[in-house]
Amino acid sequence: MTALLAPAAPTGRPDVGQTLRDTTALVGRTVRRTTRQLDTLLLSVLLPVMLLLMFTYVFGGAIDPSGRYVDFVVPGIILLTAGYGAANTAVDMASDMTNGIIDRFRSMPIRATGVVTGHVVASMVRNAVSTALVIGVAFLVGFSPQATVLGWLGALGVVALFVLALTWVGVAVGILSSGPEAASGFTFFILFLPYVSSAFVPPESMPSVLETIAAWNPVTPVTDTMRGLLLGLPVETSTWVAAVAWCVGIFLVARVAAGLLFHRRR
């Protein structure tokens, strides 16, 4: 009788079609959960717009009296948005790792790694919406990019690569954390990075110690590449190569770490 009531164990690995369907379902689960979390939506979508308005109208006049500070600050706000998205991903991933949902998925003939994919896709979607809103509001407050079509594609490509890298860092932190509260501590570190870079002020205006930190901050080459592409300014080869190298390097390390940590926690 016990044998009859016990769930049948999977007899083999899911085929490619089944894996794709399972992953799609788990992606849809994470995206739907995001839309039901009002605080997450406000943090991911509205807060970057508020920061853009604050930097433009509150600090912009003091930093750049010419009134063109909005052109300078838009790339920094976009990257700050990516930081918020990665922090939210860390918290959501930690919640899934500690609330028993992974154990439930393990009892089903599906690949639980689809949960990780779901969080990555949801983060990319959130950041895409936030970036579009930031750029749209920036146009309303006077943003005047001079980018060509290729420039826009290049800038958006760099943003996507940066978001992907930070998202996987958030996933790794979420898996490693003991719970959502511990993962939320990641927010401070990831949100602090853009402030000590070229995102909001030129590094040469900082004290020598901070200028050195800004020079080695991965946010600096990413910001400079985006700013140059959007404003039609020349971008040095060393700058965009450093931006891509930082993003790819962070992505690879975080991706491998997340995979190892996930299987270890399981």
Cα distance spanning the termini:
30 Å
Structural class: mainly alpha
Q: Compute the average pLDDT.
A: 82
Order of helices and strands: HHHHHHHHHHHH
> Biggest sheet, open or closed, and with what strands and sense?
none
- Overall structural domain count: 1
Shape: elongated
Helix content: over 70%
Q: Total helix count?
A: 12
Q: What percent strand?
A: under 5%
Query: Which regions contain 5 or more consecutive residues with pLDDT less than 50?
Result: 1-12
Beta strand count: 0
Radius of gyration: 21 Å
Quick structural overview:
The chain has 266 residues and is mainly alpha-helical.
How would you describe what is shown here?
77% of the residues lie in helices and 0% in strands. The protein is built from 12 helices and no strands. The protein has helices spanning 2-5, 16-36, 38-63, 69-98, 101-106, 114-140, 149-176, 180-184, 186-192, 208-216, 219-231, 237-265. By secondary structure, it is mainly α. Helix 2 (16-36) crosses helix 6, helix 3 (38-63) packs parallel to helix 6 and helix 4 (69-98) runs antiparallel to helix 9 (186-192). Mean pLDDT is 82; it is low at 1-12. It has one domain (56-265).
Q: Would you spell out the secondary-structure blueprint of this structure?
A:
Elements: H1 2-5, H2 16-36, H3 38-63, H4 69-98, H5 101-106, H6 114-140, H7 149-176, H8 180-184, H9 186-192, H10 208-216, H11 219-231, H12 237-265
Keywords:
266 residues; mainly alpha; 12 helices; disordered N terminus; transmembrane helix; ABC-type transporter activity
